[in-house]
Amino acid sequence: MIQAINVSLQFGGRVLFKDVNLKFTKGNCYGIIGANGAGKSTFLKVLTGEIEPNKGEIILSPNERMSVLVQNQNAYDEETVLRTVLLGHKKLMEIEEEKNALYAKPDFSDEDGIRAGELEMLFAELGGWEADGEAKTLLTDIGIKEEDFEKPMKDIDPKQKVKVLLAQALFGNPDILVLDEPTNNLDFKTVRWLENFLLDFENTVIIVSHNRHFLNKVCTHICDVDYGQINMFLGNYDFWYETSQLLARQQKDQNKKAEQRAKELKEFIARFSANASKSRQATSRKKELEKLTIDDFKPSSRKYPYINFDFEQQIGKEILIVKNLTKKGFFNNISFSIREGDKVAVLSNNALATTMLFDILSGKEEADSGVVHWGKTIKYGYLPQNNNPYFEGNTNSIVDWLRQYSKDQTEMYIRSWLGRMLFSGEEALKPVNVLSGGERVRCMFAKLMLESPNFLLMDEPTNHLDLESITALNKGMINYKGCMLFASHDQEIVETTANRIFDLVDENTFKDLQTVNFDD
User: Fold this and answer.
1) Are residues 352 and 499 in the same domain?
2) Contact at 8 Å (CB) between 55 and 7?
3) Is 289 in the same domain as 336?
4) Beta strands 455-459 and 176-180: pairing type?
5) What is the CATH number of the domain that holds 235?
6) Do 454 and 389 share a structural domain?
7) Are residues 297 and 333 in the same domain?
8) Does 271 map to a domain?
9) Is this structure's pTM higher than 0.85?
10) What is the DSSP secondary-structure string of 232-286?
């Protein structure tokens, strides 16, 4: 168990959270959510001791071991892959090193023998004799080849480094597992493996993640960083979100009777009470959910952008035909056609291949050979993964930047679109070259909506976005009536939006699928 007691933290005059009292217990998985900059990752650093709170304390149960996912991918460059995982159990490795140093002494004394005996007992109690085998099994399960076990970390692919560091955090059955964005840069198969690992994990897990599918799958509780507080709610992300939205709608309607409000919420809670994400806790959590009242919740203060892609030009029978398209080093001889109503997710182990395909379809790049034929009724809009050319070196305000993409040049009209993207008042006058990654993407959404395309090309549209923007984007993609070709690492978006899957398996293998199995 780990507990925060009256914890407060502020930087200068800015209070991140105040008088936080939370208890994280064995058998539960806690998702930490909040708007960008709310202090989610900072709170994890307080829990792990990396940052001292201004007030209060963090209490860890005696003799419990905490394991934290390392964010610095180069931290273990001089270690082998296998040893990097073993170093996840720091105490075990310290015991082994002291033990080996004693045995290596040329003048091994009686006192050394007594100490060595103590260390051998501790080593065995901590599972030291099984550690190598367990670490190797973990590496294999997470997708690291045996031939790479003894390679230095500096010599392996960055995507594999992420997996090794995740294996390090999971190694040795820690009592408390702290994971900050564990699904970043992981393929769908590894994310699914991690979900199953955590569902079977019997100790305490605390996670920060922007992956809604992941949070819904593994979390038993949600901790919402909002109002300068951190409030804990039973249930997964969807349950927290839908409840918060329901209360927000009811709060706007001042004439709503309290009895009706209570009835709706009780019915809603009853529906979710059967949706426990971890079967082990399903019965107890269902009982807890059934006891919830409207006083246990309050609407979130966070705002969601309004993303709604619409178009005027109706789509004809001929949409997009691609024949024998080839770009050396990326893909070879691929062919497909898009039908009316198609929303196609493009998957690939090589993100550069997906980007090259989109760049060729949009006319930014030329293929080595093959044909791209767009239908006469099609107006496509492109959201590239790299939007730097639209912003770097541009000192225009957001209003003036967006004006160049609008037929109606009036400031009131432009501001109405920016308001949808949460740029209001003075915010809309910021120069675009100083915008954050998430702000730039929201500007690109406003541009796309103004252009009113009936075919969307979107390359990793969730990059840099917070949960609120990702949720709004997901709704916009589902509601869109045009055709769409998109690439995304957000499993929830792929599963809820796509009716077809294009899988660029490798340079010479292209699969056109109707469904996708993320376990394959």
Assistant:
1) yes
2) yes
3) no
4) unpaired
5) 3.40.50.300
6) yes
7) no
8) yes
9) no
10) EEES-HHHHHHHHHHHHHHHH-TT--HHHHHHHHHHHHHHHTT--SSGGGHHHHH
Q: Which domain holds residue 353?
A: 320-513
Quote the tokens at residue 15.
């209070």
Residue 226 phi/psi, 5° resolution?
-160, 155
Among 301, 332, 359, residue at a domain's last position: 301
Domain count within the chain: 2
456 plus 338 within the same structural domain: yes
The answer to the question of residue 140 being in a domain is no
Instruction: Per-residue pLDDT tens, the chain, 520 aa: give them.
Output: 999 999 999 988 888 889 999 999 999 999 999 877 788 989 999 999 999 999 999 999 998 999 999 988 899 999 999 999 999 999 998 999 898 888 888 888 888 888 989 999 998 988 889 999 999 999 999 999 999 999 999 999 888 999 999 999 999 999 999 999 999 888 888 999 999 999 999 999 999 998 999 999 999 999 999 878 898 988 889 888 887 777 777 666 654 555 565 666 666 666 665 554 554 445 555 555 566 555 566 666 778 899 999 998 999 999 999 999 999 999 999 999 999 999 999 999 888 999 999 999 999 999 999 999 999 999 999 999 999 999 988 899 999 999 999 999 999 999 999 999 999 999 899 999 999 888 999 999 999 999 999 999 999 999 888 889 999 999 999 999 999 999 998 989 999 999 999 999 999 999 998 765 555 5
Does one domain contain both 293 and 197? yes
> Is the same domain home to 374 and 499?
yes
